[in-house]
């Protein structure tokens, strides 16, 4: 029996019945293939033989895959059954195509549509290519043996090549569609996670969704908010993700109307990670909430960041990005009770608990406009005593009364503290 390689197109010679010989080729509609329903170039006896052999071909293909592919042998029974169904559909489609070449595209596409919907999740594209290659190699060995003569052997060999091309394109299209669907679903899932964080939803489902997106739930998290750089959400996502990838940081983000919310993973107290990510935002202020220990607490960072974004207009010279903790005075003036409580807890209470002289010194120093000698004369103490008390106040509050911005924070904090005490809140 003549080898298929000696008679097929790979040998470089004309195929019997092909264009070079003046006759039609199976499946080549552009060069005069038979119309649907007309007898093909293969004899009816050969077509009947192929139909009877299709089941054996499918079984032999599965056996070949089991012997050559270790990962195929390790697949669960239901997944292997799904692959076997795909193979059976492909073999049946090939036999039908030989009988009616004009149905090639429809039949090859249906071979993948009839497979289980989630097959692309447990069989990768690379593995699918291996399966198709093994199936085509077996077809090239087995099918020519069923031909009646040399002409039919050549036609069957070329038919395998043509049908294999159609199967390859159908597989690529199927996996591309699955990838697009997964990408769209991941984008929607990511938007849901970020929206849940903004709304303060810390339930377990949010954590599991974030984990499904590749987020480490135990990593530190910081929320940044600001204006998106453009009206094209995919471009915004690409810009933020590119910068995060260069920093080696995990990130979740969502464009919510005219607001971009970014959840950045990892430590942010050192380095320039916040500044680098802020460059992906559009014009205007960018506010970063406090870094929290894990995703479960990220709603606190989001709440503070959004409060700061509403109040940052009160500080035109604010840096970019600016921490929400640095906007406590503006947030308190805007009516944020959380900011008021933080001013009391971080500044007013420590100064009062440290002793009346320390609180009186800071208060007097602010009242006299930050003039050391005037403060000392009003308190009837030496200027060095004022310096010592101010250093002590800085250690307790983290605010230096000699700095204009810190002086504003201290003044507002002391006023808020007095108002809170008058209302009996502490």
UniProtKB/TrEMBL annotation:
UniProt-listed InterPro entries: CdaR-like_regulators, CdaR_GGDEF, PucR_C-HTH_dom, PucR_C-HTH_sf
Region (Disordered): 1-46
Domain spans labelled CdaR GGDEF-like: 200-311
Bias type Gly residues, positions: 10-25
Domain PucR C-terminal helix-turn-helix, residue spans: 358-415
Compositionally biased residues, Low complexity: 26-40
Family, as annotated: Belongs to the CdaR family.
Protein name, per record: PucR family transcriptional regulator
């Amino acid at each position: 029996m003549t080898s298929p390689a000696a008679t097929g197109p790979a040998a470089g010679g004309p195929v019997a019945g092909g264009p070079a010989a003046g006759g039609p080729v199976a499946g080549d509609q552009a060069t005069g293939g038979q119309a649907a329903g007309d007898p093909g170039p293969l004899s009816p006896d050969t077509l009947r033989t192929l139909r009877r052999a299709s089941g054996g071909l499918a079984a032999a293909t599965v056996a070949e895959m089991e012997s050559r592919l270790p990962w195929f042998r390790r697949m669960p029974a239901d997944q292997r059954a799904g692959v076997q169904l795909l193979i059976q559909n492909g073999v049946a489609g090939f036999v039908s195509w030989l009988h009616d070449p004009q149905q090639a595209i429809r039949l090859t596409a249906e071979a993948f549509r009839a497979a289980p919907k989630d097959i692309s999740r447990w069989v990768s594209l690379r593995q699918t290519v291996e399966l198709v290659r093994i199936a085509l190699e077996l077809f090239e060995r087995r099918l020519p043996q069923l031909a009646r003569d040399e002409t039919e052997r050549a036609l069957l060999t070329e038919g395998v090549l043509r049908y294999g091309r159609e199967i390859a394109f159908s597989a690529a299209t199927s996996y591309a569609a699955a990838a697009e669907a997964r990408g769209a679903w991941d984008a929607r899932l990511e938007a849901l996670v970020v929206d849940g964080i903004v709304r303060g939803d810390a339930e377990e489902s949010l954590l599991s969704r974030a984990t499904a997106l590749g987020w480490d739930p135990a990593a530190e998290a910081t929320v940044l908010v600001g204006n998106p750089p453009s009206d094209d959400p995919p471009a915004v996502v690409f810009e933020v993700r590119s910068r995060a990838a260069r920093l080696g940081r995990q990130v979740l983000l969502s464009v919510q109307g005219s607001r971009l919310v970014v959840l950045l993973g990892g430590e942010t107290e050192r380095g320039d990670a916040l500044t680098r990510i802020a460059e992906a935002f559009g014009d205007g202020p960018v506010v970063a909430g406090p870094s929290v220990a894990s995703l479960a607490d990220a709603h606190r960072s989001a709440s503070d960041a959004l409060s700061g974004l509403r109040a940052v207009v009160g500080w035109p010279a604010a840096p970019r990005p600016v921490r929400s903790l640095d906007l406590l005075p503006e947030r308190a003036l805007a009516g944020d009770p959380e900011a008021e409580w933080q001013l009391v807890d971080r500044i007013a209470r420590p100064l009062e608990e440290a002793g009346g002289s320390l609180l009186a010194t800071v208060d007097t120093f602010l009242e006299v406009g930050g003039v050391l000698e005037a403060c000392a004369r009003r308190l009837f103490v030496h200027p060095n005593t004022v310096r010592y008390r101010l250093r002590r106040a800085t250690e307790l509050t983290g605010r230096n009364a000699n700095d204009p911005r810190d002086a504003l924070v201290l003044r507002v904090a002391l006023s808020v503290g007095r108002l809170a005490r008058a209302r009996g809140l502490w």
